[in-house]
Write a structure and sequence with these properties.
51% of the residues lie in helices and 13% in strands. The chain is α+β, with helices and mostly antiparallel strands and 388 residues long. The protein binds 3-thiaglutaryl-CoA and flavin-adenine dinucleotide.
């Protein structure tokens, strides 16, 4: 029975509704994710059958209004959902992050009423899968230098270019693609599966996020209908606003991966005997466990406070960067330490730790690398941009 740590009684800061939502997602993860996920990760396959189930449990668009198929919940609820999903696997949380923050959010925040009606309900149920195309082969940390572009051809836009490292691109029904117009201004286009000249090949041989689909988006003279442009946003701040939401979710999500590692390591250390004693009785192992719990507790408080600020629309992008950076590094370090507590057993798929560790190597890179988030904090402190 999973027993998540709550050393500072953070639960007392949650409402009954928060706890109910968390418990229903936790049950689903125990039932549908935990029993199968190692197998899918070992086979390097994405459990596509979970997408519809995620729609059913309300994992897509929790903070999107109910009239568009969302649940109209607050941002703490969104965070708690992410924590539970990532306890299962970062790939499952990734699916929810992309669908919610990177696809439903921009369509809701920047789309026309017709676009909202057309896409959001289908994305909320998981009938349709979405992808978000910002990164390019030669432009990752600097999306402002993107090359993907479109021309106005009167009755349509003509889109050319390529995106890389795109979660769920090979199966996406709709992709939110960020591209420059003839004036060099970034806009969002909704590119649907099957449009002529559009392909989305899968990226193979990953050692990380093996239970997630990653691919490219390639545009070779794709005719995009004019009504597929997101009308209410212009400039790089469009995709960056989506990233604020996704990075916020990651700051919560990785706590779930860290808790799963801690829970596994604590149990193992109490059961495993060496020198005729449980390894938990050795000071060096106690040090590891004590430090892990301290770091999880700090991360929980950071995420919770960020959630209250976000609920009040006061969380700044720099505050979100700090939480994403801190919490992902925290989880990755905890995965490494927990893995050691299990000795050789820690490298097997019998335990979730190595899988979390490998996943977190992607999480520390995507949604802005660890370095980029530090530099965002540096800019916020000093007022001096290191990017210019
Ligand atoms: P810069 O000149 O600073 O900014 C351009 C415009 O954007 C505004 N802005 C923001 N707006 C909202 N939220 C933010 N976080 C913002 N940051 C900046 C800014 O005010 C400006 O607005 P305006 O009106 O003056 O034009 O831009 P820069 O080119 O210097 O770049 C800044 C930098 C490096 C911080 C940014 O480009 C960055 O964050 N780079 C990292 C890229 C990144 O995170 N990519 C993620 C791709 S998506 C992904 O990884 C999905 S993984 C999904 C999964 O599976 O979970
Ligand atoms: P680069 O930008 O080339 O960086 C390489 C190294 O240089 C990094 O260590 C970086 O920190 C460092 N660096 C770069 N600039 C600076 C600087 N100014 N100062 C100091 N150091 C610097 N993108 C999407 O658009 N949509 C997705 O759905 C998506 N899903 C992803 C899924 C996976 C599994 C992965 C691994 C990535 C995904 N990404 C996605 C891409 C991800 O956002 C990028 O990988 C990330 O932004 C970094 O870009 P890059 O890999 O090109 O690295």
């Amino acid at each position: 029975m999973y027993n998540p740590p709550d050393y500072y009684q953070v639960d007392e800061l949650l409402t009954d509704e928060h706890k109910m939502i968390r418990s229903s997602i936790r049950d689903w993860v125990n039932r549908s994710v935990k029993p199968i996920i190692d197998d899918y990760a070992q086979k390097h396959e994405y459990p596509t059958h979970l997408i519809k189930e995620m729609g059913e449990i309300g994992a897509f668009g929790p903070f999107i209004p109910e009239k568009y198929g969302g649940s109209g919940l607050d941002h703490i609820s969104y965070g708690l959902i992410m924590t539970e999903l990532e306890r299962g696997d970062s790939a499952i949380r990734s699916t929810a992050s992309v669908q919610t923050s990177l696809v439903m959010y921009p369509i809701y925040a920047f789309g026309s009423e017709e676009q909202r009606q057309k896409y959001l309900p289908k994305l909320a149920t998981g009938e349709w899968v979405g992808a978000f195309g910002l990164t390019e082969p030669n432009h990752g940390s600097d999306p402002g230098n993107m090359l993907t572009h479109y021309e106005d051809k009167g009755d349509h836009y003509l889109l050319n270019g390529a995106k890389m490292w795109i979660t769920n691109s090979p199966i996406a029904d709709v992709s939110v693609v960020w591209a420059k117009n003839e004036e060099g201004k970034v806009h969002g286009l909704l590119v649907e599966k099957g449009m002529e000249g559009f392909t989305a090949p899968e990226t193979h041989n990953k050692w990380s996020l093996r239970a997630s689909l990653t691919g490219e988006l390639v545009f070779d003279n794709v005719k995009v209908p004019k009504e597929n442009l997101l009308p209410n946003i212009k400039g790089l701040k469009g995709p960056l606003m989506c990233l604020n939401s996704a990075r916020y979710g990651i700051a919560w999500g990785v706590i779930g991966a860290a808790m799963d590692c801690y829970d596994t390591a604590l149990r193992y250390s109490l059961e495993r005997k060496q020198f005729n004693k449980p390894i938990a009785s050795f000071q060096l192992q106690q040090k590891k466990l004590a430090e892990i719990l301290t770091e999880i507790t700090k991360a929980q408080l950071l995420a919770w406070r960020l959630g209250t600020l976000r609920n009040e629309d006061r969380a700044t992008p720099a505050q979100i960067s700090m939480a994403k950076r801190n919490n992902v590094e925290m989880a990755l370090k905890i995965a490494r330490e927990s893995r050691q507590i299990l000795g050789a057993m820690g490298i097997t798929g019998d335990y979730p730790i190595m899988r979390h560790m490998m996943n977190l190597e992607s999480v520390i890179t995507y949604e802005g690398t660890h370095d980029i988030h530090l530099l965002i904090t540096g800019l916020d402190i000093t007022g001096i941009s290191s990017f210019e």
